[in-house]
Fold this protein.
Amino acid sequence: MGQQRVAVVGVGQTKHQATRGDVSLAGLVREAAVRALEDAGMAWADVDAVVVGKAPDFFEGVMMPELYLADALGAVGKPLLRVHTAGSVGGSTAIVAAQLVQAGIHERVLTVAFEKQSDSEAMWALSLPIPFQPPMHAGAGGYFAPHVRSYMARAKAPDHIGILVALKDRLNALKNPYAHLHEHDISFDSIRDSMMLWDPIRYAETCPSSDGACAMVLASERVADAADGPVAWVHGTAMRSEPTMSADRDPVLPRGGADCARDVFAQAGITDPRRQVDCVEMYVPFSWFEPMWLENLGFAEAGEGWRLVEDGVTQLDGELPVNMSGGVLSSNPIGASGMLRFAEAALQVRDRAGEHQVDGARTAVGHAYGGGSQFFAMWVVGSDKP
Amino acid sequence: MIEVAVVATAQMPNVRAETLRNEVEMLMPVLQEVRARAGLDRTEIGFTCSGSTDYLCGQAFSFVSTLDGVGPWPPIQESHVEMDGAWALYEAWVKLQLGEVDTALVYSYGKSSPGSIHEVLSRQLDPYHVAPLWPDAIGLAALQARAVLDAGKATEADLAEVACRSRRAALANPNAQLRWDRSVEQHLAEEPIVDPLRRSDCPPITDGACAVVLAAGGRARELVERPAWIRGIDHRVEPMALGLRDLTSSESARLAAERAGVGEGPVDVAELHAPFSHQELILRAALGLEDHPNVNPSGGALAANPVMVAGLTRIAEVSQRILDGAADRGVAHATSGPCLQQNLVCVLEGDR
C-alpha cells in the first residue's frame, strides 16, 4: 500500500503590506484562497477539506480564528484543521494538507496560511515575557543575533555578506508584485549605513512586519493529470523538531535542520543538492541566515556558505538562485511566510513565477523554520512526476 | 487504509486548579506513564503530535516550551494543532496512513484555572461583530439550551437527568473532578444561573492533560494484547454564526458520525464531549444513540472539562475500555467552538 502522488495545482497570495486595512481577516484569507482556486480552475464546492495555518493567535487577538474563518473559507460541512508549529507553520500546514492526499483520504485540499500583524505588535509578541522566561531579548532579532555572531566567527565570514544577501533579496522583490517591500533606491551603501539594531544585524537586514496570506490547492494524481496548466509534483516532505533548551543543541547549524534536509532529499532521490536542485526558497528573516541555511541544508560545506553568497551563486541568475521572490526579508506575514516559500518553489517548477522565474527550473526546494531555530519543514517539488 | 490502533492511554487526574505545577510539569508524568504502558522508549516514537492553545497559557508559542517535556532529542518528527487533542490524534492517524512510521504519541494539555475561561472563550467569536460584546460561553450555551427546550426536544428534567447521571457515573472515575449522587429533584431545585441553565448543567473549570499512543498494524499487536482499532474517524465544521445553523441539532456531528461508520455495528460504549447537559441530548440524536444505556460512563465533560483535552480524553476513555476487554466496539466524540460548531467522531473496536 504505497502513498498516493500529490501535486500543487493552484497557488494564490495577497499583496503583502504593513497594514491591509482594506480587508478583514476573512477578506485577507479569501483574497489568497480565491486566487488559488482560480489558478486551479476550481470552485469552492470542489474542495474536500481545508487546512489552515498561522502563528500565535495573540497576533490578531482571535483565539483559534479558523473557527470564525470556517464560513469564509468554504469549510462548512467539511473537515477543517488548524496547524501551529511556530514560524515553520506555513510549511507544516502545506505538508499536513499534502498528507491528506498522499494518504488517499481526500483528492482536493485547500490550504491557507496567514498573519495580520498590523493588528498587534509582533516584535513584543516575539519577546518571551516573564514569568515564563527570563527577559533576555527584545524581538526575534535579539534572540538570533548571537547565533549570527557565532556563525561569523566560526565560518570566518567577512562582515559584508549579510549586506549582499539583503541587497539581493530586496532587488528580487522588485520583480515580485506581491512583495511587501519595493525599495527602488536600495543599494549596498544604504544597507550598510542603516541603523544597527541587534549587532551584527542592521535594520535593512531584517524582515518587515506584514499583513498577508498564501493559499494552495493540493490535488491527487487523477485531478492533477486532468489540470489544464502545469502542476508542481511533490517529491518529498519532511518535518523535524528539537528542544528549546538543551546542551546538545547547536542553534547555529541545528541538527534538526540537517536531518530534515537529509530526509527530504532522500525521498526526492537527490544526492547532490547543489547540482540537482534548480532553485531554493528558504526562510531567511535576517540576512545572515542565507549562508547559515545553505550549510545546514547541505548546499555548502560547513564554513563555506558565505562564499556562495559572495560569489553570486545565489543571485537570481546564479547557479543556485535563493529566494527568488524576495523572501522573508521582503514580506513577512509570519504565519504565511513558510507557505510562501513552499508556494514560490511550486510556482518556479510550474514556470509561473513571472519576472522572478528561474529559466528551466524543474526541481525546487521550499524551506521554513521556527522557534529558536528548532522547528523545520521542507518540501521538494518538481515539474515531473516522482 | 493502514490499520491504526490506540495501544495506551494516560490522564492526569483532573483538578479545579493545578497551582503548583506548570504545563510542562503537569504533562511529564502523563507522557512517562503512557510510554511505559505502551512499552515504548522515548526514542521509539515515530511521530509526535499535540493540541493546545496559547489563550489558556497567556503566552505566544506556549507549546514550544511544552515540547521540551517530550525530550525531543535527537530531533523528532513532530507537529502541533491549535485544537483539542482529538484533532492532534487525527493528524497522527493521517501520518500513520503514510506507512513511514508505525508509532505515534499524541498529547494535549490545558490549564483553564489561571484565567476566566468562559470569557476567554468569547475571544473565539467573530472579532468584528460578536466578540466586542463579550458573550461568554455559558451565555451562548444557554441560548442553545433555550432553543432545545422551545423546540420541544427536551425538558428541563431531561437536562437534569443528564447532569445527575454524569456526576453519578463519575463516582467510579478516579480522574473525574465533580462526583456526586443527587436526584433530578435536587438539581431542579437550583436557581438557573443563565436561564435555563443551572450551575449543575454546566461543566466545571478544569486543569488537565491526556496522552495516547497509536500504533499501526502488526506493531500494535506486538505492543498490546488487545489494541483499540480506529475503524473510522471523521470531523466536520459548521459556520460559527449562531444564526446560520439550527442550534437544536448538530449537522456536523451527524455527518462525521455517518462518515466514521457509527451505525455500522453495535455500540457498547459512547463517550460524547458535551460540556453542557443539553448538548449530550443533541449529540445523542446526531449519532443515533438516543436511548443508548452506556453514554459517558466516565462522567464526561460535565465531570471534568479540561479545555483542549476533553475531546482526546473521550477517545482515551473508550480506548481504555477496549484495551481492558470491558467493551468491544465504542464511539468517541470531540467538539470545539461555540455551541458544538466543530465535531469529530471516532469509532474504535477490539479484536474478538
